[in-house]
Specification:
- This protein is 54% helix and 15% strand.
- By secondary structure, the chain is α/β, with parallel strands linked by helices.
- The protein has seven domains: 32-130 and 274-307, Response regulator (Rossmann fold), CATH 3.40.50; 138-270, Rossmann fold; 308-366; 378-484; 506-688, Histidine kinase-like ATPase, C-terminal domain (Heat Shock Protein 90); 697-819, Response regulator (Rossmann fold, 3-Layer(aba) Sandwich); 839-950, Homeodomain-like (Arc Repressor Mutant, subunit A, Orthogonal Bundle), CATH 1.10.10.60.
- The protein has a six-stranded parallel sheet, with helices on both faces.
- Residues 25-31, 666-696 and 829-835 have low confidence and may be disordered.
- Pfam families: HATPase_c, HisKA, HTH_18, Peripla_BP_4, Response_reg.
- Residues 440-658 form the Histidine kinase domain.
- Residues 700-815 form the Response regulatory domain.
Length: 951
Amino acid sequence: MNKLLVSWSKRLAAWVLVCLLIAGCAQPASHPHYRIGFAQCSTNGPWRKAMLAGMERELSFHPDVQLKMLNSHDNSELQKRQIHELIASSIDLLIVSPYEAEPVTPAVEEAYRRGIPVLLLDRRTASQAYTAFVGADNVEVGQTAARYAARLLHGHGHLVELLGTPGSSATSGRHEGFAQALRDYPGLQVVSQVTGNWTENVPKSELTAALKAHPEVTLIFAHNDGMARGAYLICKELGRDRQIKIIGVDGLASEGEGIELVQQHRLQASILYSPGGEDAIRTALKILGKQPFKRENILGTMVIDSTNVLTMRQQTDKMVSQQQDIEQQQGLLQHLRATYASQQVALYVSLASLLVALALGALAWHSARKNRLINLQLALQNAENDKINRQLSQQNEENDKINRQLTAQNEEIRSQRNQLELMAERARTDTEAKLRFFTNFSHELRTPLTLILGPVEELLSNSATFSSAQRQDLGLVRRNTQRLLQLVNQLLDFRKIEVGKMAVHATEGNLVTFVREIVDAFEKPAQLRDVRLRFLAAEPVLIAWFDGNILDKVFFNLLSNALKFTPDHGQITVSLQAADQGRALQVSVTDTGLGISEQDRGHIFEWFYQGDQGAVAKGSGMGLALAQGLVRLHQGQLSFSSQPGKGSTFSVLLPRELPEALRADELTRPVVFSLDEPEPLAVEPVVAEVTLAEAASETLVLVIEDNQEVNDFLVRKLGAAYRVQGATDGHSGFTLATELVPDLIVCDVMMPGLSGLEVVAQLRADWRTSHIPVVLLTARGAPEQQLEGVQAGADLYLTKPFNPTFLLESVRTLLSNRARQREHFRRELSVDTTGVTTQTDQKFLLDLTAIVEANITKTDLSVEDVARSLGVSRMQLYRKVKAVLNTGVTDFIQGIRLTKARELLLDDTLTIAEIAYELGFSSPSYFTASFRTRYQLTPSKFRALHASSAH
């Protein structure tokens, strides 16, 4: 028996050893290792460093690949020797970036003959003996620079070309492409060429002499951004940095390079010239992995200017952040691999110990069979079991006791819950009663507030006889009455939200334009306190469904709070970008104020809560609560983050799509502050407020009446619903009409100097005022006199004495009819003006269209340029276009460009990019987005549909 046990034990030990050997050999197979040699012509300069950094970033994903880089310091003989050295070191693939093509060609051909794959990076050799090429087309870079220069100078100007090092393939290629493209623009002339050395230290004396000899120079094309930076410094010394535009090449994102120079407006643009480090490694790995690859890998280029530099900066910053995350994850992965190896060894040791323990246990079991004490052990075990059973019985009794206690506690909790529900119901009832009280009280306050504000406004308008202290007191009364009225309106809005009577009427529009108009309204109060107000939009057009009347209150409250709590010389930043993978838009308002304390953060959105606001005047505690309620009503989210002493950020997340139930049946224009209104905000030293007239309406009514008492009466009556401006004679009234371009004019007929009929005739003859409805008031009531007024061009003829209520209703009707007419014109916006009411308006639209079409290729065509061409102010042009077409001047220009685009797309010989630049769009992508927003299909699909219909 003992021999049998010994034999069995030996067999078991052998089996354990075999298992350990198998486990030890079961290591994961290692991946093949590759050695890549890189013969680099130089590592000087940010562009070459960016190339190496790109290679290292790509290699970080492939730890099994080794890169050996040799730097020849721009010495062709040294580079040739280094290529032979790399060949002799048994590399698997050779990457070469030649300094000069001819000298290194034999060495590269030798590597290719030996079967070593050769990848040429950035520059070529004089032979076709290579496996693949990765790099940009320097000729295309030069052509892109020339075309951009032509568009920038409108095809006419004198240029200076700042060349790279002579003999360099980059220098010759960029010069050749620049010269070729300039042949298409005979109005552009290169008056001088200066040779640089690819660094900021350009030949100062030569460039200075060239610029002094040619004062007509308006643009410098530098072959890289380093020389462009040096050229800018020389232009600044000569005082011509604003006159001369500079274009560079490279477009790197590192500090002091192309993207930053464009952001600082030192360069007009930088032509992207990708270093290609990542692309070179990716192509090399495809070659080594026997995967399909392209032999010619030409890297694309683009123009980086003010229209897309912010997007490029954000993309590069995001890439840097992602690379940092990847490096952290790789470090964590290495740590996990080390932990896995350590745990694997421990597992094998444990497995061996377990098998040994099993073997010993088997021996012990066989030995125990012969042990006569087994029965005693079983008896002892039975006694132990009895003891355990008694303990379990005691435990059950203890559990029963605990269950009884839990049952009693549950009964007590149910009783307390019922009490809490009763208290909550009472609280809801009390809250509802308080809300009803506040609502009724708010309605009762509106009448006395209006009666207080009216006389105060009249006293302030005739305050010449008052002392300075009296005027200050009256101003204090007016400001606090307006503040109280604003609080009353907020209470009413809150009540509407609570009872579900505030509905969302969303329309589809550009949220960027909407938010920018609100931000612009705060520009002046921010300037008064030297607060920097910035608006940053990730894209120029972000379309969404939203109710402007609701969001206007939200963003106004957030900006008011930001301005209130930001100290003098601080900064407020409003940013807008897509979120949730494009399904939502996020608007953030960031200030550099005091921040929100920890004890206030949990109550910041509670009604009437006022936290510790320090030295800042306390508010009502309703603004943020109202904003949150309105955002939730809009199916969005309002959140915040804050650092005490550093500032706060409030973010509004809005869905881009809303249910059909929340969309308006008709197009409703959101009520926002107009950029062209002279005084959108009344500002105290700390808090920004809106005046009553501006809060009431944006409609401007001009009253022309020589009787001062009647004039004052009309101003008071109409001022309750509109903004009103008064004039006491026909000449001043007509002058004000041309300057302000009001929405409606109420004019007396019998006036000294210029009569009312003559005023109407002049208004109808002037295109700036020909569209304005006119109500004539007169004591002459004969039918023929009324007919005379209508024939002169009046829209309504009222005889004195007149009913003020009838006058107000008539004004409302005229404005409503004119608004519907404008909406019709806006929907049918095109160069066809046959539907416009007057011949003067038709001529105005034809002149406006002609000016836009004449300058349609200008990417920087602005409202000021158009107004200057028409000989009017920006505000006059804005109000005229708004009154006739119910749209902005910028939208009108965009409509002309997109209408012209449909015609050009019918010509198959033009590419979509050529059409985009021909129509003044800054980039083809922006043209495509604008076209799709207007016509719900892309330019390529439009062209395809036309081509299919033609066949």
